[in-house]
TrEMBL record:
Subcellular location: Nucleus
Protein name stated in the entry: Elicitor-induced DNA-binding protein homolog
PROSITE patterns, per database record: WRKY
GO CC annotation terms, alphabetical: nucleus
Domain called WRKY: residue spans: 107-169
SMART domains: WRKY (SM00774)
GO MF term list: DNA-binding transcription factor activity; sequence-specific DNA binding
One Pfam family hit: WRKY
Alphabetical list of Gene3D superfamilies matching this protein: WRKY domain
Family matches, as InterPro entries: WRKY_dom, WRKY_dom_sf, WRKY_plant
Record keywords, A-Z: DNA-binding, Nucleus, Transcription, Transcription regulation
Length: 280
DNA sequence: CCTATTTGACCGGG
DNA sequence: CCCGGTCAAATAGG
């Protein structure tokens, strides 16, 4: 297996960013509601974006020499001596990489419900915040889907929630069909939020949000996720421009920079998340 | 049995 | 070392 060098890595990242940005432009060019064999064109674009984003975030977090199969130290079943008590907590050092904060979409909504199925994996008290922050990951993580979601209730008494989406869904069957909560109180009970009537000392809640798109949507949940409303921006469908973008994207994938693959890495070494180009 | 949630421990960036 | 993000054992519930 080939090792990654820092120069190679930058080339890879550059190519991926070009592909991702072209895909975003293409998404804005796509007319709404293009179906082919029941597949919505924008859904495909979203999946492509997801693959770009996930690959970029994975690649960005890798250091030199980490391209080959990543084996975390904690996952090595080092031989446990018999005198090593089983209750000893595991050494989890190096177990997880923190994800870059890029590609986050922030929304202010009045329900944490959206069309995706999420599984809660954590909750934290945040310093100087009245309400805890809840952490969710996609239910289909086992399929390799890296989408995450963070939820925190606003402190302005508006009963709204600050939701941050991180990463994109790459899973199949991403749309869930049922509503989990019928009303806000059940939802708040579920989230285990503190009683908003109690006075907690909370300094000026500054809202400096960087590196993210902010969307205020007070109406319904149907645009609570960037993946479903991104094509709102679609205005023109300039076919020539569209074709050029496709060529740009596919070209990036099929004939990558010579330097990338000259060291014995072949395209066969890559396994794409989905066969997104089959229908195109 | 299985899957989902809870919750304190753990990790790592700043 | 602090704080926020994640892990994973214990627990809940179908």
């Amino acid at each position: 297996m080939e090792y990654i060098s820092s120069s190679n890595k930058n080339i890879w990242i550059g190519e991926l960013i070009k592909g991702r940005d072209s895909t975003k432009k293409l998404q804005n060019l796509l007319p709404r509601k293009i179906y082919n064999d029941g597949v919505l064109a924008n859904d495909l674009v979203v999946k492509i974006l997801g693959s770009f984003s996930n690959t970029l975030s994975t690649l960005s977090s890798l250091g030199p020499g980490e391209l080959s199969p990543v084996i975390s130290p904690c996952c090595n079943d080092r031989a446990l001596d018999s005198d090593e008590i089983e209750k000893k907590p595991k050494d989890r050092r190096g177990c997880y990489k923190r994800r870059k904060t890029e590609d986050s979409r922030i929304k202010i909504v009045d329900t944490i419900e959206d069309e995706f199925a999420w599984r809660k994996y954590g909750q934290k008290e945040i310093l100087n915040a009245k309400f805890p922050r809840c952490y969710f990951r996609c239910t289909h993580k086992s399929e390799g889907c890296k989408a995450l979601k963070q939820v925190q209730q606003l402190e302005d008494g508006s009963e709204k929630f600050h939701v941050t989406y991180l990463g994109y869904h790459t899973c199949q069957n991403i749309h869930k069909d049922t509503q989990m909560f019928s009303d806000t109180s059940a939802l708040k009970f579920y989230l285990n939020f503190k009683d908003p009537n109690i006075n907690y000392s909370s300094p000026s809640s500054h809202s400096t949000i960087t590196n993210a798109n902010i969307t205020h949507s007070s109406e319904r949940e149907d645009d609570s996720n960037a993946q479903s409303d991104a094509h709102h921006l679609a205005t023109s469908n300039d076919d020539k421009q569209s074709i050029a973008l496709w060529k740009d994207i596919i070209g990036n994938l099929e004939s990558p920079h010579e330097d990338i693959f000259k060291n014995g890495i072949s395209v066969d070494d890559f396994k794409f998340d989905e066969n997104v180009f089959l229908h195109i």
